[in-house]
Amino acid sequence: MWVRGEGFRFISIDCGSNEDYTDEDTEIPYISDKGLIDTGIVKTVSSDSPANLPRFSKNLRSFPQGTRNCYTLRPEQGKNNNYLIRATFVYGNYDGENQIPEFDLHLGVNEWTTVNLTNAGPNGFYYEVIHVPLTDYIDVCLINTGRGVPFISSLELRLLDNSIYRTQGRTLTKMWGYDVGRNPSDFSVRSFFYH
């Protein structure tokens, strides 16, 4: 499941894709979530969505059944390491309802955040957290809170050097992020502050 990339290892999952592929712009390999979860329904964003959406944003997996649906990630390096986890959500009116859902995101049994895409725009939004698992696996769970059907477009896991963020076994959530002056024609460079 792990892919080696320029000195670090990562997992990039295209939720709802039926095949593995390498993104043409970023050269990041994405794997399908077919073998990682056996619940949910694969959907595609509306044809009215922006044409320049990344490939991993065009499909998604929705979870109309059950209160709790989880992806279990098993990083090769195991527990007690810092991991950046990024979950991306692009609604794209995939269900034709034009009603953006709101739901919770958990790491195992612990609440990570409430997914609220009201102000996200057509390109969606992503949530990030730096997490140190105490087990050899990480459960990322979508929780139906009765305010619409949970869904997810992509899920990414990046191993971080333990010296970069001293978490002392806790989780760090992104408070804000800044673009630090990249050329608009380059793919995104991200700089963030965690709390």
Describe the main β-sheet briefly.
9 strands, mixed
Kindly report the average pLDDT value. Answer: 84
Radius of gyration: 16 Å
**Low-confidence runs of at least 5 consecutive residues:** 1-8, 187-195
What is the succession of H and E elements? EEEEEEEEEEEEEEEE
The count of helical stretches stands at 0
- Sheet-strand content, in percent, reads over 45%
Assembly status: single chain
Straight-line distance between termini: 29 Å
How many DSSP-defined strands? 16
What does the model show?
It is a single chain. The chain is mostly beta strands and 195 residues long. Helix content is 0%, strand content 45%. It has no helices and 16 strands. The chain starts with a strand and ends with a strand.
Question: Could you give a short description of this structure?
Answer:
The chain contains no helices and 16 strands.
Supply database-style keywords.
195 residues; mainly beta; nine-stranded mixed beta sheet; four-stranded antiparallel beta sheet; disordered N terminus; disordered C terminus
Compile the SSE list and pairings:
Blueprint: E1 3-5, E2 8-14, E3 21-22, E4 29-32, E5 41-44, E6 59-62, E7 68-73, E8 82-89, E9 102-107, E10 110-116, E11 125-131, E12 138-147, E13 151-152, E14 154-160, E15 172-178, E16 191-194
Parallel strand pairs: 2-4
Antiparallel strand pairs: 1-2, 2-14, 3-4, 5-6, 6-13, 7-12, 8-11, 8-14, 9-10, 9-12, 11-15, 15-16
